[in-house]
Design brief:
Helix content is about 35%, strand content about 20%. The protein has about 600 residues and is an alpha/beta fold. A hairpin with a 2-residue loop joins strand 7 and strand 8 (about 170-180).
Amino acid sequence: MLILGVSAFYHDSAAALIHDGEIVSAAQEERFTRIKHDAAFPANAIRFCLEQAGATGAEIDHVVYYEKPFIKFERLLETYLAFAPRGFASFRKAMPLWIGEKIFQRDILTKELDSIDRGLAARDKLLFSEHHFSHAASAFYPSGFERAVVLTMDGVGEWTTTSVALGNGADLSILKEIHFPHSLGLLYSALTYYTGFKVNSGEYKLMGLAPYGEPRYAKLMFDELIDVKADGSFRLDLDYFGYCTGFTMTNEKFDRLFGGPPRLPEQPLDQRHMDLAASVQAVTEEVVLRMTRSLASETGEKNLCLAGGVALNCVANGKVLRDGRFESIFIQPAAGDAGGALGAALGAYHHQKRQPRRISPGEDAMKGSFLGPRYEQPDIERRLAAMGANFLVVDDDALIEETVQALVAGKAIGWHQGRMEFGPRALGGRSILGDPRSPTMQKALNLKVKFRESFRPFAPSVLRERVAEWFEIDCDTPYMLLVANVTPDHRHATPDTEQALFGIEKLNVPRSDIPAVTHVDYSARIQTVHVETNPRFHRLLTHFETLTGCPVLINTSFNVRGEPIVSTPEDAFRCFMGSDIELLAVGNCVLHKSDQNPELALNYRSAFELD
């Protein structure tokens, strides 16, 4: 049975295809259109999924949309009525769109599918899931667990903002929910907006900013913004928020509570912003920990699955792991709305069609999340030549050797290999790599390669078999979704003078043997690299360790600020020519910046809208 899952029309549109329950392919539309967080119908992603499977539309048994639009319309209408007459301007703007398009989404989906392949558009093929069920299915079914409790948390789906489900074999049932407008995701997004970052994009920046501050406002948030019970259930005081009735996340009462208006994008960050970031992060962690502790006690389950946008908060995830209430945790790598496409397909297969589930104990079914397009060597060479690139074709040994020598020399490397990752993280398929031992590499990559804020941390990729020697964690974390500290024997004592430094100035103090991936609180967002899912990247790390004694590399996504992660060899070459990346490895093609035609250089700094 072939089932195509689709998410679209809010943010991070995507498509995923499964065959008899096995994940064949999955990709976000943004990677094809080059529009970050593209919300458009994922026509390009669907075409890719069909091509990957060698299938026509007529061979697809079902197409499953990841949520139920009419219930979402019901929530919108009831919210406006509940808060009337406030929000009339927003209501007047939204209603024509919803009445004209959204509530007739079945017709829109059918039309879009028909434009791709008429065989996809048969009305009896189209199924609908629920938003949070799609999230839950995306986490449980690939998890490798026979049984698990599943916690999903995001901004909002139809009505649900938080759900708890129980998975057992092929069965998945929602046990309880928290409904809009009470939302942990929207609380975090409100602070994202207030500190000057873009909602649905900048939340991870807020998380990265938090260690520079102190949670001075956490008590105020608990007193005024959110009432949290012992089991983690909560309610927000809606008098402080604008998202129910207006066009902004917060309002003037919120401004008065925190001492001023929202920061404008690109304005300087000050200590208050860092303290606000630290405070909402502390609140989020406390709510999540109360929930997970309560769920462990209530259900007696040993395994936990996480999905939804809040599950991308890797700092909170790390605290849940260290809390020890669950023996094992699986987090869907595409935890946001993109992953809803995969969950919709898996949910339809196992839940709606009652098909059995095959489990490989100790292994998840995400295949390292390498589910996107790949390019064969002759195709790579043809594409690069058409771009005017100068390259050498080398064998595998020479590729690894030359790349490692460039890393040791302190160069930034563009690494485009194998299948593209599904989800927001680069995991060694579409990555920029660097030497983590360099005390200047973190700042150089941020400012000269990524063109982004200097405070942004980078993640370490580490050989799975070496992770416990370098970090205070000893489990698989292949999707860069858990944070742990560098081990004490690799830390450096920081000078007493650091206490006098302001916020981001602390970043320049080397605090470990791998300073470029060690955050100011000694933490790191870790990716374990496994020979089974990414043998070439594993080999690169192994050779780097042989030469340096260090089994760790900087791994950041292959893009500049505001750009989606690169997909094609052409995308990689453009980014290479528009940034200070010094060596590019695409398949077995090696490109040196000094060998390229300078007329092909691009001004990438202003090529994309800032995120």
